[in-house]
Amino acid sequence: MHNDIEKILISEEEIKEKCKELGSRLTKEYEGKFPLAVGVLKGAMPFMSDILRATETYLEMDFMDISSYGGETRSSGEVKIVKDLDTKVEGRDLLIIEDIIDSGLTLSYLVDLFKYRKANSIKIVTLLDKPEGRKVDIKADVVGFKVPNEFVVGYGLDYQEKYRNLPYVGVLKPKIYGGE
Ligand SMILES: O=P(O)(O)OC[C@H]1O[C@H](OP(=O)(O)OP(=O)(O)O)[C@H](O)[C@@H]1O
Ligand code: HPA
Ligand SMILES: [Mg+2]
After folding, report:
1. Residue range 104-113, pLDDT digits in tens
2. Overall domain count for the chain
3. Cofactors per UniProt (predicted)?
4. Residue 23 main-chain phi, psi, to 5 deg
């Protein structure tokens, strides 16, 4: 598996440090509140697990499974709910946790949905931001790292469902995508 990686963009150590830093920030921001942390499956799973264990406040966790990429490296543009939340959103302070904002389609769909469901507040935390990928205007409130306009894998991010369990974020060798 490691052999398929051309270069590591963000190391395991850098991710660990960042989760601690962002966790302390969220601890302060949600002091005295009881936010609903919404993990966007499947990609956000490792990041959610690490950042929330560094967030020292009461919180509730729930998950939403959204899909728009299928097995491709480009968004189909059609966002589908595979699994909805079990929790009522009305009046809650939502903390949406994502692995990456690329085109922005997934998050803009979710933000609209949660506004419609009358959330009290919505904050977006993403490990990675790929600003050059953007098709709709949306910004995260908290960003771990910016990444260049390349398809990245690892730490939750997949290519054809593989590589999510890499402890770092990297770029695949071109031959893995069927390139030369
Ligand atoms: O900003 P966007 O262009 O919408 O891309 C970001 C979304 O795409 C990926 O999920 P995907 O739909 O591939 O599902 P997955 O998390 O199960 O891999 C990623 O985990 C984000 O949720
Ligand atoms: O660069 C990416 N890698 C993996 N999954 C993704 N979903 C959106 N962008 C990406
Ligand atoms: Mg994916």
Report:
1. 999 999 999 9
2. 1
3. Mg(2+)
4. -60, -45
Whether 160 contacts 71, CB under 8 Å: yes
- Domain extent at residue 131: 2-177
Q: Answer yes or no: 99 catalytic.
A: no
How far is residue 21 from each of residues 35, 51, 99, 127, 134, measured CA to CA in Å? 19, 9, 16, 12, 26
Predicted TM-score (pTM) of the model is 0.94
Reported as a single tens digit per residue, the pLDDT across 69-79 is 666 667 667 88
CATH of the domain at 14: 3.40.50.2020
Terminal Cα-to-Cα distance of the chain (whole angstroms): 18
3-state SS assignment for residue 98: strand
Ligand 1 atom closest to Cα of residue 101: 1
Closest CA to 128 of 113, 158, 148: 148
